[in-house]
Amino acid sequence: MNIVFTRRQEVAPHVWEYFFNPERLMWFTPGQYAHFRFPFHIDDPHGKQHRTFTLTSMPNEPELRFIVRLDEPVSVYKRPLSELKPGDRMLMDDPLGDAVLPRLATRLLFVAQGIAIASYLSILKELKARCARLDLAQELALGLTWRNPVTLIWARRDADNSLENLIPAEIPNLKRVDIVYPARIDLTKLRHHVTKETLVYLSGSQSFVETLGTQLESSGTLRERIIYDYYEGYPDL
Ligand SMILES: Cc1cc2nc3c(=O)[nH]c(=O)nc-3n(C[C@H](O)[C@H](O)[C@H](O)COP(=O)(O)OP(=O)(O)OC[C@H]3O[C@@H](n4cnc5c(N)ncnc54)[C@H](O)[C@@H]3O)c2cc1C
């Protein structure tokens, strides 16, 4: 699908939020990502013509959004991305990914490293919307409540602090745990937020996600209760 670049804004040092007008409204589930390409060839050393970005807008919003880190020297893909002018066209494939809200309400633990907080921005908006659609009595009558405990653990460097402004406010039952470098996240910090019912989402670099996932599984969390979401191409975030 064609998408037309409209604008971008710096949301933290070296992190930009991009805005596009899609040629038509595209349905996706909050939390999904898509592959984005240019309408011309890029001379990528690995031949890769796309990069993957998580959609941070909601499906019913007219503009599509994602956030991206643009550290110098930028890659051959990110050079034209950083030079986009309003009106320039890009191509977006169909959204993908199963790091989305579960069908049935349960306890949720979201763990993010740095800008991988992007994975949860639209999910948290969706959670807030679900709580607003039904009042607590209705939810209980239906045997489900989206007001189960929700924990967001966000490990990051100081420089990423202003991404905070992108996190939706006033989500019922949301507990925040902030771990700012040099403090580090580890199993001890995770474990007391995890019960048998908790669905754990891990989002960050491959080593971050795999290390925490393996530790959780070794300490008894079932693999099917963990959703792995790698941001490949970032050795660290
Ligand atoms: C599901 C998912 C969601 C993502 N969401 C976001 C997002 O919302 N925002 C965001 O900024 N990023 C996101 N990413 C990461 C993004 O797609 C890019 O991979 C990342 O931004 C790095 O791109 P780059 O062009 O800077 O680096 P690249 O040019 O891709 O290279 C980065 C590093 O990886 C190495 N490398 C790359 N490809 C290969 C290969 N095939 N073999 C060996 N080495 C390789 C390079 O040498 C370099 O060291 C997501 C990735 C995934 C998989």
Question: Please, could you describe this protein's structure?
Answer:
By secondary structure, this protein is α/β, with parallel strands linked by helices. The chain folds into two domains: 2-92, Elongation Factor Tu (Ef-tu), domain 3, CATH 2.40.30.10; 108-230, 3-Layer(aba) Sandwich (Rossmann fold). Helices cover 19% and strands 30% of the residues. It is built from five helices and eleven strands, in the order βββββαββααββαβαβ. It has helices spanning 78-82, 118-133, 136-141, 187-191, 206-218, and strands at residues 2-12, 15-22, 33-37, 50-54, 64-69, 89-92, 108-113, 150-156, 174-180, 199-204, 226-230. Strands 4-3-6-1-2-5 form a six-stranded antiparallel β-sheet, with no helix packed on it. It has a five-stranded parallel β-sheet with strand order 9-8-7-10-11, with helices on both faces. The longest helix has 16 residues, at 118-133. The mean pLDDT is 92. Bound molecules: flavin-adenine dinucleotide. Flavin-adenine dinucleotide binds at residues 33, 46, 51-54, 66-69, 75, 77-78, 115, 118, 230-234.
